């Protein structure tokens, strides 16, 4: 299957299953597109109330039919897919220190439909794995809170997802159980995921405020997800699972288990729910004869039952920054985050045209006392077929910011006040702006040059090796994605 399956509203991402149930299609349970194992730079279909999988096309893979092997697998309900992503990033200005870094992944997934394989209708088994390599450009050279790429992750060879899904009532109800990456379906924006900066996939707020960043790429955790399509334009989803995919302590951040096979249930449970509504904006504004302007609007929330450290006060009620403090933070039971996601086509050249302009907005708000970040907003535009004769190319511009919670800001002030001599700088929200262009070099090879600009790098929490404040940064990058 091609990276160019059904050129959609100019966006991309692994959350194909979000769209698949919008169809309540007959047949197997939600068959994920091959792009489900990649966090960015992968096109998705146009949002639609009756999504259909595009026909499989051997010309969109480097190895074609695999000398007939893919055809044999397909007859038995099996599909094997693989991708390779190579990225190079360079710091042109500001940041910690100039220079270049490399990262990359190889990803593979096997799906098995139980209908052709076992005669059991509407069942789907999925297993996938990742091999992640390279160095962290954000840590080594940039010093930013937001990584320049979704592929900026700890080096490992790991199991990604392993689950079974059963469709019921003509797939209007689908139940999935196993080890799941919840950001494949929840809190995802199709258009935002076209961009390479990691925050446009799984945002900075849950990445910083949940244990190990929560079950998000490249991590998964034991979970059960239920999806219901009661009406054609409406989808309701809910999931419950382990909140800590690596099994480490809260302060362990994104470290811990590197294999993806350690399943810990020691910290708490994560509950997440989302309602999605499909609409044709043109039909609402101009009537049935206008060019269709599809969009999906999503409203959701998550709750984590674990305990979370206070951002300013210690266990005795004093200031964490005070010299007399034990350093043990006050613990709060539970944590929450609410969000709104809008993916909307806002312009189309004519009826049936793929030359479109598409908007996304994603806003989040969470509990303040126990979270480092409690507000986050991203917004952007993507442009399909901007250049004549380039129907598979997309250009995009996007911006994002996450703000520190009030207690986190006051704790930063406390640190400066108790320092000897007093000093320090206030925590400031880090902004990032991205310009990117994805070009289809061949039907199986995408090349995506990228420019990102950061200001308030690191939010005031870091300095350069010489002790100076980090200057605003300019980053240049190149992503090359191959479908095998």
UniProtKB/TrEMBL annotation:
GO terms for cellular component: membrane. Belongs to the OprB family. Pfam families: OprB. Residues 1-28 form the signal peptide. It comes from the Bacteria. InterPro entries: Carb-sel_porin_OprB (IPR007049), OprB_Porin (IPR052932), OprB_sf (IPR038673). One of its GO terms (biological process) is carbohydrate transport. The keyword Signal applies. Gene3D superfamilies: Carbohydrate-selective porin OprB (2.40.160.180). One of its GO terms (molecular function) is porin activity. This is Porin. Keywords: Signal.
């Amino acid at each position: 299957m091609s990276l160019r399956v059904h050129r959609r509203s100019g966006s991309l991402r692994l959350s194909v299953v979000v769209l698949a149930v919008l169809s309540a299609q007959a047949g197997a349970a939600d068959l994920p597109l091959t792009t489900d194992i990649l966090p960015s730079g992968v096109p998705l279909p146009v949002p639609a109330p009756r999504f259909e999988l595009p026909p499989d096309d051997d010309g969109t893979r480097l190895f074609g039919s695999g000398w007939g092997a893919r055809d044999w697998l397909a007859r038995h309900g099996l599909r094997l897919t693989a991708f390779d992503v190579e990225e190079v990033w360079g710091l042109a200005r500001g940041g910690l220190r100039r220079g270049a870094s490399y990262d990359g992944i190889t990803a593979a997934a096997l799906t098995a439909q139980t209908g052709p394989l076992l005669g059991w209708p509407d069942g789907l088994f999925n297993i996938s794995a990742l091999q992640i390599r390279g160095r962290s450009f954000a840590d080594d050279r940039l010093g930013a809170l937001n990584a320049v790429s979704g592929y900026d992750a700890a080096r490992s060879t790991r199991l990604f997802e392993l689950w079974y899904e059963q469709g019921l009532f003509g797939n209007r109800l689908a139940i999935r159980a196993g080890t799941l990456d919840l950001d494949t379906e929840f809190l995802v924006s199709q258009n935002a995921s076209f961009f390479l900066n990691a925050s446009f996939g799984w945002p900075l707020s849950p990445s910083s405020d949940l244990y190990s960043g929560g079950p998000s790429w490249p991590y998964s955790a034991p979970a059960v997800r239920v999806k219901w399509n009661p009406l054609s334009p409406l989808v309701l989803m809910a999931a419950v699972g382990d909140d800590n995919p690596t099994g480490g302590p809260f302060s362990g951040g994104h470290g811990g288990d590197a294999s993806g096979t350690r399943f810990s249930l020691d910290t708490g449970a994560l509950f997440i729910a989302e309602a999605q509504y499909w609409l044709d904006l043109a039909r609402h504004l101009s009537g049935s004869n206008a060019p269709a302007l599809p969009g999906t609007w999503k409203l959701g929330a998550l709750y984590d039952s674990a305990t979370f450290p206070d951002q300013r006060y210690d266990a005795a009620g004093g200031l964490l920054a005070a010299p007399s403090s034990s350093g043990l933070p006050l613990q709060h039971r539970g944590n929450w985050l609410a969000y709104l996601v809008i993916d909307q086509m806002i312009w189309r050249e004519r009826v049936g045209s793929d030359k479109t302009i598409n908007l996304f907005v994603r806003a989040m708000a969470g509990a303040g006392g126990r979270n480092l970040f409690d507000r986050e907003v991203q917004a952007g535009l993507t442009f399909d077929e901007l250049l004549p004769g380039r129907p598979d190319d997309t250009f995009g511009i996007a911006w994002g910011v996450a703000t520190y919670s009030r207690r986190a800001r006051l704790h930063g002030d406390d640190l400066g006040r108790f320092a000897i001599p007093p000093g320090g700088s206030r925590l400031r929200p880090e902004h990032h702006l991205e310009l990117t262009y994805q070009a289809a070099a061949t039907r199986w090879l995408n090349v995506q040059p990228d420019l990102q600009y950061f200001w308030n790098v690191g939010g005031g929490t870091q300095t350069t090796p010489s002790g100076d404040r980090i200057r605003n940064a300019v980053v240049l990058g190149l992503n090359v994605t191959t479908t095998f």
